[in-house]
Amino acid sequence: MARRWNGWGDESYVKEISDHGRRLIHSVIGVTDPLPNASLDAVMAKVPASRLPDHYLISKGAEERVRHARGQSFPDWLAMHSGDYGVFPDGVSYPESSSQVRELLDLAVEHDFEVIPYGGGTSVAGHITPQQSERAILTIDMGRMNQLLDLCEESQVATFGAGTPGPLVESQLRVRGYTLGHYPQSWELSTVGGWIASRSSGQQSLGFGRIEQLFAGGRMETLHGALDIPSIPASSAGPDIREIIMGTEGRLGIFTEVQVRVTRLPEEEKFFVVFMPDWSSAKKAVRELVQQNIPMSMMRVSNAKESKAHIHLGTKESQFKLLDRYLRFRGLGGDRCMLTFGVTGSKIQNKTSLKQVRKILKGYGGIGGSIAQMMGKIWADGRFKFPYLRETAWQEGIAIDTLETSTDWENVDSVLQSIEESLENSLKNENEEVMVFTHLSHMYSQGCSIYTTYFFRCAGSYEATLKRWQKMKASASEIIAHSRATISHQHGVGKDHAPYLEAEKGRLGMRIIRTLTKEFDSDRRLNPGTLLVQESGWR
Amino acid sequence: MARRWNGWGDESYVKEISDHGRRLIHSVIGVTDPLPNASLDAVMAKVPASRLPDHYLISKGAEERVRHARGQSFPDWLAMHSGDYGVFPDGVSYPESSSQVRELLDLAVEHDFEVIPYGGGTSVAGHITPQQSERAILTIDMGRMNQLLDLCEESQVATFGAGTPGPLVESQLRVRGYTLGHYPQSWELSTVGGWIASRSSGQQSLGFGRIEQLFAGGRMETLHGALDIPSIPASSAGPDIREIIMGTEGRLGIFTEVQVRVTRLPEEEKFFVVFMPDWSSAKKAVRELVQQNIPMSMMRVSNAKESKAHIHLGTKESQFKLLDRYLRFRGLGGDRCMLTFGVTGSKIQNKTSLKQVRKILKGYGGIGGSIAQMMGKIWADGRFKFPYLRETAWQEGIAIDTLETSTDWENVDSVLQSIEESLENSLKNENEEVMVFTHLSHMYSQGCSIYTTYFFRCAGSYEATLKRWQKMKASASEIIAHSRATISHQHGVGKDHAPYLEAEKGRLGMRIIRTLTKEFDSDRRLNPGTLLVQESGWR
């Protein structure tokens, strides 16, 4: 894959916007001119001299430093397109072993520099974006540690280099007959070490579990030596160190080799799309499905606005009209909601699950029929392609971002509505409309995740566009932080969510996290500014 | 329930040993005289004056102090029967609210005393046993905080007082149509707060999850204020505080109100016992069942020795002979292994699961037939009664203890064999035989728990009997600690397992735990000696 230097994914892939999809967007937010894009050469010319020492493991080339300076958050996107990066890492290293990571950490102490671990560079919350510092900054790209090192078929535990990205995780397992089944939307690029460091969740977490259930053990190199977690199925022996270091986002150390729980490739996997009459029936249906504990591998339910947007963006106009006519004929109007679900496992189990699912969905007025499996296949085929839309839209002056949380079922409607209203109203004083839609996914008996996408017009400058985003992000984050909802269900904390973490963790929860980061990194050398806001009193 | 003051459970319940069960035990370890039992009055006479201040929340009565001085570990058992308690708490408190717990913690600082939280008093690892101290010791019995405080049916989250014991958890939920489904063997007495503080696992964890999956949030009172964890279904926002405080065994604070994930009462629940030809086929069968992810709520497989012992202890001789004849007729001899399993859920799901289970078990030569469900019911009816056997055996001079671990499938046989051999050989130099048998339970795709029971003769004195146990416990614990197995899968660390914790957690893992206990309890006032061995340099 030739990777886009200033955006998402494979530069050979372009996600087209259908004409009627474009008309729908324009009907909500209007049209505008795109902002000018900086060239890679222009950005490279801005890269300053490196402050790092010369070392055989450290590269100081301008292009590498540009390519490792930013993730995929909206501020990152603006920086990459405007060329106003602000800070570049002083160098990039590509270790090939735990001992080379160890060597780099020792070097960081010796030469007093900071270290940022880099997996797939897919953070949408600023995890890997360097902050201004008096000290030099080294980004450690784990991408060369990308091998399946061991597979114990008896215990179904696989050991990977922490820098192994999704496709290499699956391809190396599949030739042996196994799968991990962890598919975040960033799967094409994000890495197993990154998933663990940021507590990732995959689209099929309902069946395969979140990364918490998949991570079995492994090594994290810290400033005080290697922290090894033995692979053990379960334990009551005190606090779970595995759970303590998951989600530390590079603040305690760098994962180098990790063990994950794999399963044999399923006999059968099927996805379906069913349409529900309205939001209320759709939400009740998925809640009942998950609370009845029916084995399924994924569920997602889009609200009416998202259902409309997805179908417009995902179809040609003629296809849309056919589908619309069919659904209207079956009695579903403009309030209809798409419900996508999947079953993964043995044929006999899938058959039983589907029987129960159909009964429940039918009871809530769901319409599937012959198109359900075809549309399920379309979802599965395009499941990692949505992020490419940002690029296409950007070239037309349209900015896209997403935000997400999770909360208990009793709060879902109020949190969802508050987030959507806040985004829709956030630019009213500029007479700007925002196009907002939402889905629920990652179903739990207790609640689910809420995932909201918003489209808005670029302002006349990068600065003004960033201000628009900041206003929207802050307003939605405040709502989340004060609604017993998590500031992130699957994107992590990074720098963008750090100001809201205390509302969730509480004063003593924050004390736990700060105590550990201070104990392991008293000089604040490891990914500073991530997870915790700038610690007062520290350099 | 009138509780035994010096042993397990309800004093009105006596578990009889069948004649042929007794003969089996005697055939292995021989007979001996029981040791003399101390009376409650004699022990009460030893209770010294309390060093605690007078306070309306603190009781200093001798009987209460005796009844809260010990749990159910083997050393506890010897202390309770010999009357040599060593240390008694200086008083007992029965708070009725979080604010009363808060008041007691403030008082502990003001008057410089130590605090031990007490749930059901069922620890088998010394969690609640006070250690000699220059300071006074207060045991805080949470038993009055035993109410269902809230049930959100939409989110399926129940809030309980942390001192609610198993039967009150279930009875208060069941009248509302819900269940928690957490059934450790100590269920009759142990409490939801204790389960969380010690990372408990129930017999049906395969279906309902371990306490880690059930604990949703709640309050822990610490010396620095209340640590509140909001109920959220899942999050990627940094380390999971819930997971950090689970298993801290009173070292960071005391759980006062806790939220757990409940489910609606299942439509159907069934248990079965099937006999497998030998250990190899039995182990392969359960591994295949769990790795195929077939929905079941429990599995347990006893090795041939345990199968023999359980059937002898659980049947009359005439019943045993019938069963034995039937199994021999079906081709199963002395190597046969009992495999107990259960399904819990909807009828349609259970039917599908059972179809798959039968196919796999049949493939490995399993014999069930008409007796399978009847024997399953016998298991279910007696599931909490095994601990009562200790009392009956003790009165005949027979000591019983159990130990447990978990490890990956690839290690199961070698760890199991090493533990059994070590126990069987541990008293050879005294010409003593030990009767040892084992089952696997709590199946995970990655591995399972190994649970070993051992019977041995009391020595001529309490001191010599304790020495026998210490030798056995140390030898088995050393093996576990050095075999990539956990020092405890379900009993916690307490004081008995603390010396082995570092082998599992590593130097840096221990540093994490010590850092947190120091931060939260710099004066080592909360349950000292538990979880961590006596910290050097601390008072």
From TrEMBL, chains A, B:
Keywords assigned by UniProt, alphabetized: FAD, Flavoprotein
Domain FAD-binding PCMH-type: 85-265
Domain of life from the UniProt record: Bacteria
Extent of the signal sequence: none
Pfam families xrefs: FAD-oxidase_C, FAD_binding_4
InterPro entries membership: Alkyl-DHAP_Synthase, FAD-bd_oxidored_4_C, FAD-bd_PCMH, FAD-bd_PCMH-like_sf, FAD-bd_PCMH_sub1, FAD-bd_PCMH_sub2, FAD-linked_Oxase-like_C, Oxid_FAD_bind_N
The keyword Ribosomal protein is annotated on this UniProt entry: no
Similarity field: Belongs to the FAD-binding oxidoreductase/transferase type 4 family.
Record protein name field: FAD-binding oxidoreductase
Gene3D superfamilies in the cross-refs: 3.30.300.330, 3.30.465.10, 3.30.70.3450, Uridine Diphospho-n-acetylenolpyruvylglucosamine Reductase, domain 2
PROSITE patterns the record matches: FAD_PCMH
